[in-house]
């Protein structure tokens, strides 16, 4: 897992520890000097020893540590927001997160296969805006329309069967919620990519698709699963404990409902593709995207960040270099000033 650069700020807790070690060292030295003899006599025997220099060296080391830590944090500049013009379409990914998507008739599972497919589709997009919807017994907005693909992938990987409380598969709600992502006044082409095993436990999916067609939406359905079907494993701490059973205590076999997905796509003059082969899906999506009219739109994005770590590291190394040549004995010109009233 990649460490967040901001977490390096916790290293600043080292500073008070260094100060405490310094004070403890001074205490230990003074204690040993008292055991050796009279402190005033010892000071007279070492007239070149500076009281100020050890403290000054400590300050230099603390500043050097701050520089090194800030270098690791890597402060950046360039937070200016700018509006750019892009040409593309609006795409919403509606992902089935019902328990049937845990079936492993498609490796590693239907849900993980869905994530892989969506991630690969995002990788081949250019200037299109994307959004994500999750659905099971009801639909849930995961990510609104955005051009930030990295954020989309982050939300994508966090999706699981627990983010929607009601179980089942409600394709009609997924289609209706996805429709709210699109701006009715915009002329931008609207595409819904619906990923599911097609086991719809509600009614009205085709009616919702026909309504979407009137709004100018095109739906491409991606079928995940096999017609032979598979069981739904129930895991605890990564270990399969049992399998999903129905009200009659029979092990549930979940199967791909290809005809249902095909009818949804047909209602919007879209298309259906088998999602078990990732390359086949990517080629199919790319072909369809090439045939969809792109529209120019404005998008707000963050200007490029410029790393500033080199200045802090340079500052730290200069201080450490200085510390090497800084001795603890008195400097002649400082000695003449007699700042600490050492001379009597």
Q: Could you provide a short overview of the structure?
A:
This protein has helices at 14-36, 39-45, 52-73, 110-123, 149-157, 171-179, 205-214, 258-267, 278-290, 309-324, 332-337, and strands at residues 76-77, 81-88, 90-96, 129-135, 139-146, 190-196, 217-223, 230-231, 233-236, 239-243, 253-254, 271-274, 295-302, 306-307. The protein is α/β, with parallel strands linked by helices and 344 residues long.
Task: Map the helices and strands.
Elements: H1 14-36, H2 39-45, H3 52-73, E1 76-77, E2 81-88, E3 90-96, H4 110-123, E4 129-135, E5 139-146, H5 149-157, H6 171-179, E6 190-196, H7 205-214, E7 217-223, E8 230-231, E9 233-236, E10 239-243, E11 253-254, H8 258-267, E12 271-274, H9 278-290, E13 295-302, E14 306-307, H10 309-324, H11 332-337
Parallel strand pairs: 3-4, 3-6, 6-7, 7-12
Antiparallel strand pairs: 1-14, 2-13, 4-5, 8-11, 9-10
Helix pairs in contact: 1-3, 3-10, 4-5, 4-9, 6-7, 7-8
Overview of this protein structure:
There is one protein chain. With 344 residues, the protein is of the alpha/beta class. The protein has helices spanning 14-36, 39-45, 52-73, 110-123, 149-157, 171-179, 205-214, 258-267, 278-290, 309-324, 332-337, and strands at residues 76-77, 81-88, 90-96, 129-135, 139-146, 190-196, 217-223, 230-231, 233-236, 239-243, 253-254, 271-274, 295-302, 306-307. It has a six-stranded mixed beta sheet with strand order 5-4-3-6-7-12, sandwiched between helices. A hairpin with a 3-residue loop joins strand 4 and strand 5 (139-146). It starts with 13 loop residues before the first helix and ends in a 7-residue tail after the last helix. The model has no long low-confidence stretch (mean pLDDT 82).
